[in-house]
Amino acid sequence: MAGVLALACAAEGAFAACNTPATQVTDAALTTLLSGNTVCAARGGDRWQEEHQAGGALWDYKLGDADPVDPRTQVGTWSVTEAGTASVVTYDYGTGSQSYEIWDDGGSYSFCQAGVVNVDNATVVSGINVGCP
Q1: What pLDDT score was predicted for residue 1?
Q2: Which UniProt keywords apply (predicted)?
Q3: 131 in a domain, yes or no?
């Protein structure tokens, strides 16, 4: 799927959401934010909803379990490195991994690499197998 975070590497914006006044999500707070929850994001015409299963499995909700054409499926793995301001979430879709800092801008989130926004305005929905609004 073209919308997965690993394929979203072109810079979406400048430095605005990868520094203050946004707050970097670090250490255990990063694991708490993602584990057992769904990240909802969009860029251009692509939209995705990735479920961060406890234990590290990463699922794309797509159109849900009941959809015969585009059901939810595992797309890779995720993990968190808790290291203060060097804390990152790493995604592996089977073709190599990508690591991102996550910045909280008041309830929407930016996924950043080297201070550059790759995905912005992402939201987190509580739970898995719930889809995004």
Answers
A1: 39
A2: Signal
A3: no
Tokens of 122: 């992402």
pTM value? Answer: 0.85
CB-based contact 9:118 (threshold 8 Å): yes
pLDDT at 14 over 50: no
Q: What is the mean pLDDT of residues 99-103?
A: 97
Distance CA 38, CA 58 (A): 10
- The Cα 128–Cα 101 span in angstroms is 22
> What's the pLDDT score for residue 13?
43
CA 10 – CA 89 distance, rounded (Å): 18
Q: Is there a domain that residue 60 lies in?
A: yes
Domain housing 95: 5-126
Count of domains forming the chain? 1
All residues at 6 or more sequence positions from 34 whose CB lies less than 8 Å from its CB, including other chains: 52, 78, 80, 89, 124
Residues across the chain: 133
- Cα separation of 53 and 74, whole Å? 10
Token pair 């073709």 is at which residue?
95
